[in-house]
Amino acid sequence: MKNKKLLSAALALTCVLTAGACGGGNGSSARPASENTAADTTAPVETTPPATLKEEDKAAIEEIETDFEELENKTVRLLANFDLNPAAGKPKSVALEMFETKCGGHIEPILCSWDDRYDKLSTMVLGDDSPDMFSAEDLDIFPGKVIEGKFQAMDDYVDFDSELWAPMKHVNDMFSIKGRHYIGATSTDAGVVVIYNKKTIEENGLPDPAQLLEEGNWTWDTFYDMIAKFYSRPDEKFGIDGWEFENAFAVTSGVPYVDFKDGKLVSNLENPSIVGVQEFMLKLKRNDYPVPKSEYGWSVHPENIANGKTLFFPQGSYVLFEPENKAVFGDPEDVMFVPMPKCPSADAYYLPSVIKGFSIPMGAKNPKGTAAYLNCVMTCRDNEKVKEIEQNQVFEDYGWTQEMYDMLLKTRELTEAHPVFEYFKAVNDDVYDCVLNPSKETYNAGIPWSETVEEIKYELQTLLDTANEKLDSLTN
Question: Do 235 and 319 lie in a common domain?
Fold first, then answer.
């Protein structure tokens, strides 16, 4: 489960943008950078004194019309390995400010390590001490943890059919069983973007991927052609590095390895779209275009983006919100990113998707408080004044350029239009292990996909059949 742990740690670093997150309402690819990562403790802790917004920003939030009522139970207990309350000196999310001022609410963190969060949740539920809120951004709650009885449906507290939630109805319906919703997703984000260095692009006479995207021509084909022109084994110049390429590329076809349709988990191992993705990745491998990790100590080297030795580095956008991490890719004016390239045969632009959102654990004492916080996030997410506030935070606190910010919004717009979620990561450990590494063997080892499918398809189907039987009996 190492890769899942790395993903969660990565998600904890991402931005505070209300336009896409609004303070913690996916990918990952995710949670605001202002959230504090927990130490290995499971005891409730004192909330760090929060940073305050500028007075003019507070006034702007106060002017936003809402019909929220003050909560009777004002404390919402969040079990997580992060704190929604920002550390001193970090930007505060507008949604949190609204929750505190208009609902009288307060987020109380119950911090634990990422590894321990489900064990801690089980202990609290069994002890009739359930938290009120649990992050859904790791995309491992639905449907597996719902089947295990760890989470309750949210429909008695959140009106998913309301005008407020309309922008996210198509996404939240993807996390429902028998008409009952188990995740309150407030926005989507691309789980992986393609990071590159503009100086390297220019010096090699290649087209700018951002311009290709603007022209509607950022596809597998242009991605491949750029790599083919750049590659030089004698000069140790390779096309792609990173750990997150394989699965991120697969869903650009619009089809995940395991899908959730009509209340059932479905295997797509032999779907023509998946076969096409795997054939493309085999072509990359056979031409020696990926960085050969075995020759580099089985580690990734993002610094080679800066020095012109590697062309593309697929990675969650969270890394660009930490100045020291962003600097690894080159000088600030040269670092740029685009979404994953479009599958030429797909009927739309599909991207690997994560969500911002929360679920309500079974036995929660203040589910109305969780719903109130989520409603604040939804109120903020498309408000123009809020977008302006959050944009300024990104420029001031993370050193982003207007070009990067515009690309972030474009990427989120594309993701939200046609999100693709990979469900094999969220059924159980057996399904996860059955699919994860085998699905990467074409790209990493040059093993034909047909051989992999024959090896795992029967095992996967048996595991999904068992999970589907449990879904059928679910009454919560």
Answer: yes
Q: Please indicate, yes or no, whether residues 256 and 336 belong to a single structural domain of this protein.
A: yes
Distances 314 to 25, 149, 348, 429 between C-alpha atoms, Å: 24, 35, 21, 25
pTM: 0.86
Do 138 and 203 lie in one domain? The reply is no
Alpha-carbon span 209 to 239, nearest angstrom:
14
- At a CB cut-off of 8 Å and minimum separation 6, what does 472 contact? none
Count of structural domains, the chain: 2
Q: Are residue 336 and residue 372 in the same domain, yes or no?
A: no
309: CATH: 3.40.190.10
- Tens-place pLDDT, residues 409-430: 999 999 999 999 999 999 999 9
Instruction: Report residue 92's pLDDT band, with 50, 70 and 90 as the boundaries.
Output: confident
Report the C-alpha gap between 79 and 91 in whole angstroms: 21
Are 341 and 325 contained in the same domain?
yes
Do 181 and 203 share a domain, yes or no?
no
Average pLDDT, the chain: 87
Instruction: Please say which residue of 420, 450, 469 terminates a domain.
Output: 420
Which domain does 152 fall in, by range?
A: 2-190+353-420
> How far is Cα 260 from Cα 175, in angstroms, rounded to an integer?
9
